[in-house]
Design brief:
The complex is a heterodimer of chains A (115) and B (113). Chain A is built from no helices and eleven strands. Chain A is 0% helix and 52% strand. Chain B has 113 residues and is mainly β. Chain B is 0% helix and 53% strand. The chains are: A mainly beta (115), B mainly beta (113). Chains A and B meet through strand 5, strand 9 and strand 10 of A and strand 6 of B.
Chain lengths: 115, 113
């Protein structure tokens, strides 16, 4: 399988601050990356699809102005949680794939805690 | 719309016993089906995938799954459970040509010594 990294693995911040999470595809150039959110003891919910060089596609109910996604290069996508609030506390996971027929490979996740 | 249903949010088996985790899908077209495993505070690791080739798919760690179109099922099995198999397991479906994965609600597998 492919190697996907995320940084940081864990972050604690105060309410109202912004937090940036990085997702890197280490084995191949990924034109598409995905961002998921997972609440405790729940499944993964797709937040958005990140495409290199274009705007991200957000799922219904996900605020694009709150969750800013930047796919700056073929190996890096970032998710910025702006003006974070305690309800944004969650486990954020990214994934990458080479093309639409490929398997998705997941990063190790980032646990965000907003105080 | 495509979806997956995982029956049983918690499954407990004794070490050495058969593991059976159930997954049923609904899809208007032949789907791609996946099983992922998640250990605590980690991302997801692919166990195996079905992509319309052989109906019996073998994965890592001794797991396998059989695609049964007549039953719209893709159950995950392992003949003999090991303590290290304790984790959360997710079934996922993707419609051919569509990038998005839809996940089931997950099944937490506990292994009893």
């Amino acid at each position: 399988g492919a190697v996907v990294s995320q940084h940081p693995s864990r972050v604690i911040c105060k309410s109202g601050t912004s937090v940036k999470i990085e997702c890197r595809s280490l084995d191949f150039q990924a034109t598409t990356m995905f961002w998921y959110r997972q609440f405790p003891k729940q499944s993964l919910m797709l937040m958005a699809t990140s495409n290199e060089g274009s705007k991200a596609t957000y799922e219904q109910g996900v605020e694009k102005d709150k969750f800013l996604i930047n796919h700056a290069s073929l190996t890096l996508s970032t998710l910025t949680v702006t003006s974070a609030h305690p309800e944004d506390s969650s486990f954020y996971i990214c994934s990458t794939q080479r093309d639409s027929t490929d398997t998705q490979y997941f990063g190790p996740g980032t646990r965000l805690t907003v105080l | 719309a495509q979806s997956v249903t995982q029956l049983g949010s918690h499954v407990s088996v004794s070490e050495g016993a058969l593991v059976l985790l159930r997954c049923n899908y609904s899809s208007s077209v032949p789907p791609y089906l996946f099983w992922y495993v998640q250990y605590p505070n980690q991302g997801l690791q692919l166990l195996l995938k079905y992509t319309s080739a052989a109906t019996l798919v073998k994965g890592i760690n001794g797991f396998e799954a059989e695609f049964k179109k007549s039953e719209t099922s893709f159950h995950l099995t392992k003949p003999s459970a090991h303590m290290s198999d304790a984790a959360e397991y997710f079934c996922a479906v993707r419609k051919g040509g569509n990038e998005k994965l839809t996940f089931g609600t997950g099944t937490r597998l506990t292994i009893i010594p």
